[in-house]
Design brief:
It contains 8 helices and 7 strands. By secondary structure, it is α/β, with parallel strands linked by helices. A 7-stranded mixed sheet has the order 1-2-4-7-5-6-3, with helices on both faces. The protein has a single domain (5-221), classed as Tubulin/FtsZ, C-terminal domain (60s Ribosomal Protein L30, Chain: A). The protein is globular.
Length: 224
């Protein structure tokens, strides 16, 4: 709520929410390295402005062609280029809100979420970064996880994580195999340290393709 955080609107909202005991999560959109220098400077100012008042700062990066690894298809960067920053931010807001309220097999409560994403809100402002991937058909779990981990800077961020939540979504919970859970968990575990606090949420969306599977990963560094 509130644009141009450099001007203080969102900082005031976050401060009031935190004083009232509410979990305060600010969102900042980080431009791609391909974007104009002025856009990057604005994003840096917004990052600094939001770190103090919020419990967590959700940093959404804009990935462009040339920043992806070989796990993506040739058409992926072109499709991504048509998505606006507002759509990207809205997608992750829906993701964070929906996993607590939509029907799920492995439920994550608010206390668990606070622990994984903010260090139980004890250490100032945590930094959260997201990634996601979706696939259909044979080996969908492998391909969806590979897409989520395709951005090398995200894998580096993941290797230093204090907390992580991965969200697995299918159209029908009966279609999710234990083998697929093991594949997703095993691939993610390769990139995190033993000290990382891990959570998994499994939910379903009837509107998804019946053979589809989505893997979304939220990675957090707790403030010291």
């Amino acid at each position: 709520m509130g644009d141009e955080t450099r001007h203080g609107d969102a900082s005031v909202i976050a401060s009031i929410a935190r004083e009232q005991g509410a979990l305060s999560i600010a969102m900042v959109y980080r431009p791609s390295s391909f974007d104009h220098t002025q856009c990057q400077n604005v994003a840096d100012e917004e990052l600094r402005a939001m770190k103090l008042p919020a419990d967590a700062l959700f940093v959404i990066s804009n990935t462009r062609p040339g920043e992806l690894d070989d796990h993506t298809t040739v058409t992926s960067p072109f499709a991504a280029a048509t998505i606006t920053s507002e759509e990207t931010v809205a997608k992750w807001i829906r993701c964070m809100a929906s996993f607590m309220i939509k029907p799920s097999l492995l439920h994550v409560g608010l206390d668990d979420f606070c622990h994984a994403m903010t260090g139980s809100r004890k250490n100032g402002c945590a930094i959260i970064e997201p990634a996601g991937g979706q696939a259909q058909g044979l080996d969908r779990a492998v391909h969806a996880t590979a897409k989520a981990l395709a951005h090398s800077p995200f894998r580096e961020y993941l290797s230093q994580a204090d907390g992580i939540l991965w969200i697995i979504t299918t159209a029908d919970p009966e279609s999710l195999m234990s083998r697929e859970l093991s594949q997703i968990s095993g691939e993610i575990q390769k990139h995190i340290s033993e000290r990382c606090f891990c959570l998994c949420n499994v939910r379903y969306e009837p509107d998804m393709p019946l053979d589809g599977l989505k893997v979304e990963i939220l990675v957090s560094h707790w403030a010291e």
